[in-house]
TrEMBL record:
Positions of transmembrane segments: none
Lineage: Bacteria, Bacillati, Actinomycetota, Actinomycetes, Propionibacteriales
Alphabetized Pfam families for the sequence: ABATE, zf-CGNR
Domain (Zinc finger CGNR) ranges: 127-169
Organism expressing this protein natively: Nocardioides bigeumensis
Protein name (Swiss-Prot/TrEMBL): CGNR zinc finger domain-containing protein
Gene3D superfamilies in the record: Jann2411-like domain
């Protein structure tokens, strides 16, 4: 299991509107075996989880380590995780989250929480953020070596840099 990939997936989950089963299937396009299991109930449960998870990213962006750990611990208590050793590749044993019987939502929530909890313990509680480019409110996971990420994407970074350049040009011409 790639915990950083699961942590990144949690940011993608928070950023993706999930009004219905169709949108959830779009989120799962790289996992066709899950697409066919997706139900409207999963989308509803994931919308609720999105609202619960966003404050973790906001607390991290604010540098509030205590809030990050408290919020993640509360979510972990509310969504128990069952890890399993996967042997689908005997030469590469690794951890997966057990799917359980609760559906796609339960699996995605478990993966998100395990990925974020591992990331926070390994890299620190301030590696999550909210995009600094107005009006974007997307969240991101910062795995940069010097903890310098401020934007959710290259697009937002470029847009913010161009806006700052134009503002400097206007100020210089006055």
């Amino acid at each position: 299991m790639d915990f950083l990939r699961y942590a990144d997936s949690s940011a993608h989950l928070v950023n993706t509107p999930l009004p219905d089963e169709v949108a959830l299937r779009g989120l799962l396009r790289s996992r066709p075996w899950l697409q066919e299991q997706a139900k409207d109930r999963d989308a509803m449960l994931l919308r609720k989880f999105q609202r619960q998870l966003r404050p973790v990213f906001e607390a991290s962006a604010a540098g509030d380590v205590s809030a990050v750990t408290r919020l993640l611990n509360d979510l972990l208590a509310g969504h128990p995780i069952t890890p399993q050793i996967s042997d689908h590749d005997p030469g590469d044993l690794h951890i997966h989250v057990a799917p359980g019987d609760s559906g796609v939502a339960s699996l995605l929530i478990s993966e998100s929480l395990l990925g974020l909890a591992t990331l926070v313990c390994d890299l620190g509680a301030t590696r999550l953020g909210v995009c600094a480019a107005a009006p974007c409110t997307n969240v991101y996971v910062d795995t940069s070596p010097n903890r310098s990420r401020r934007y959710c994407s290259d697009r937002c970074s470029s847009r913010a840099n161009v806006a700052a350049y134009r503002a400097r040009q206007r100020a210089a011409s006055v």
